[in-house]
From TrEMBL:
It comes from the Eukaryota. Residues 25-43 have a biased composition (Polar residues). GO terms for molecular function: ubiquitin protein ligase activity; zinc ion binding. Residues 1-90 are annotated as: Disordered. E3 ubiquitin-protein ligase that mediates ubiquitination and subsequent proteasomal degradation of target proteins. E3 ubiquitin ligases accept ubiquitin from an E2 ubiquitin-conjugating enzyme in the form of a thioester and then directly transfers the ubiquitin to targeted substrates. It probably triggers the ubiquitin-mediated degradation of different substrates. Residues 156-214 form the SIAH-type domain. Residues 103-139 form the RING-type domain. The keyword rRNA-binding does not apply. Its EC number is 2.3.2.27. SUPFAM superfamilies: RING/U-box (SSF57850), TRAF domain-like (SSF49599). It is an enzyme of class 2 (transferase). This is RING-type E3 ubiquitin transferase.
Amino acid sequence: MARFSVDGAGSTGRKRKKISGAAEESQSMIRDLTNGNHSQNQDGMVESEERVVEEVENEEGQEQEQEEESQEEEEEKIEEGDGFGTSNGSQTVVKIDTDVLDCPICCEPFRPPICQCQNGHAVCSPCCISLFGKCPVCSQGIGLIRCLALERIIESVQIRCINARYGCNTTLSYLHQDTHHKICDYRPCTCPISPCGFKGSSKSLSHHFQRNHINSAVKFRYDYCFYVTFNRTENPFVVLVGPDGRLFLLLNNNDTTRGSALSIICISSCNEKSNFQYELSVGVPMTQTTLKLKASVESTTEWKGVYPTDIFLFVPIDFRSPNRIFVDVSIKKCKPH
């Protein structure tokens, strides 16, 4: 069965470069110089030859640059999902509009079984049920005939991960793309410093933050307690940077009438819940009382201003100094099982 791909790289063969008219004229001048058609001394002839050769090399260099730029543009289109197939061995280059692989009703990717009416209009099985077996285009009955040809195409299509531009090289089945995208280690993470807006993989974000925002963060070591203080009303979060470059946010959900809810999340492409635990400790002024929280670190690719509502350390307003919160923090790296 033929296999389709929407991520290919085009033909691998390279065409022989043609010498342009300017290059041919330059070579003719070289021959004329060599045959003595010009009454120049030997040094002048050598200089002329060198200039002409340089012109030829520049001409060929420009042609090569144009070819490379054209190839780069094609690769960018492929990464953006234009849908080119590979040309590898006996495979055929295919360009396909991925919209035809989606149900026209729910706009979700087709999955077998695919239903069609007698006029060939196709919908996915869930939509066929919701339409009560009536074609939305021609009102004919639908659901008794399967579109086997389209099912075979769907099963054969291979695509590149949508995070290819961020470094993911995975080629996956069109049917299983959603599963991979949810766990892809190259999902883009957004820089938490406003209004930066940088997006990249966890590793790229770490490098970006180290170069541009490191003075806005608190550095720490895993398994060691460290001290953080911040303004209770002005700081929605404090950025914490681990020794491996991972970014954590100490969130401060402040309610001026009641207190603050503190928690920690990790900005990461991966699910770090089983990898890190954190402890928060806030002492009550003038007493021996201490508020503590121990929890697993939740991860997200972007903090959108939403605070955790299930796990947090609530610090009542009476337990704080007027404008500052003083927190003892410890982030522990869990050992693999």
